[in-house]
Amino acid sequence: MTKKIKVGDFYIGGGEPLFLISGPCVIEGRDITLRIAEKLKILSEKIKINLIFKASYLKDNRSSPTYYLGPGLEEGLKILEEVKRNFELPVLSDIHSPDQAERVKDVLDVIQIPAFLSQQISLLLHAARTGKVINVKKAQFIPPEDMEYAINKLRYGGCDDIILTERGTFFGYHRLIVDMRSFPILRKLGYPVVFDITHSVRIYGIPSKDKRGGEREFIRVLGRAGVAAGVDGVFIETHPEPENALSDAASIFPLNNLEDFLKELLDIHNAARKYV
To answer: Taking every annotated instance into account, which residue ranges of this chain make up the domain DAHP synthetase I/KDSA (predicted)?
Structure first.
């Protein structure tokens, strides 16, 4: 059993129902972000799944500085604060440098540590000291059991409200695979485990706006397998027009199809939870 953690007005982990982290990859502007948040809020209430709204104010790890990176920290936080206020949703975004931790803590309910930065001591310690829930993405280049090191760094900084997110492992160059053994291994570390389904189908080395940069057709099958293997939550980036998304267009999930997909995952989770 993983630890039970409070996020907003609900609990995750520890045998609680499957929860959802969802939203656009990047904040594309106020209006579209609020539209997505409203639709996700309505959907979450309809199918009874607890929702954490996710959107990045800065995509600091894109392939080129000429690509759209987001509105930046200040404008992005204003939009996330509006989402939080208007729809009564907990909000999540990622930080990329230690100084950002202090600046985001009054808005974000969950601070996310990007996979490529998940071993950075200074970043983890500054995030831990905010007192917020910390979602750490497993780096694509480490085994699941090595997430213990990130946990120890966060605990050293005073944080014990931790989420561990699997998002695939490098398989040679450019490709990712999801080893289903990762989920029980991560759960043994004692904290809620999330499967980032949509990032797991990205193909590196190809810009995400190129349809060859992702394999969206495998999102559903990976999601079903991961939930059956045993997770506490799922991470699904979504957009009303995936082909026009400003980041991860090749792998983001269509918002109009999300309800059916989530119903599948909830059915599987409810059936599998007594075994994992």
So the answer is: 9-268
- Whole-number pLDDT of residue 201: 97
pLDDT at position 268: 98
- Which residues, in sequence order, are CB contacts of 8 under 8 Å at separation 6+? 52, 88, 89, 90, 109
The two tokens of residue 17 are 């129902």
What is the CB-side half-sphere exposure of residue 106 using CA atoms within 13 A?
6
Token pair, residue 247, equals 């980041």
Residue 248 in domain: no
Q: Which domain holds residue 83?
A: 5-237+256-271
Q: What is the pLDDT of residues 155-192, one digit of tens each?
A: 999 999 999 999 999 998 889 999 999 999 999 999 99
- Measured CA to CA, the distance from residue 223 to residue 241 in angstroms comes to 21
Per this entry, what is the length of the chain? 276
First-to-final CA distance of the chain: 9
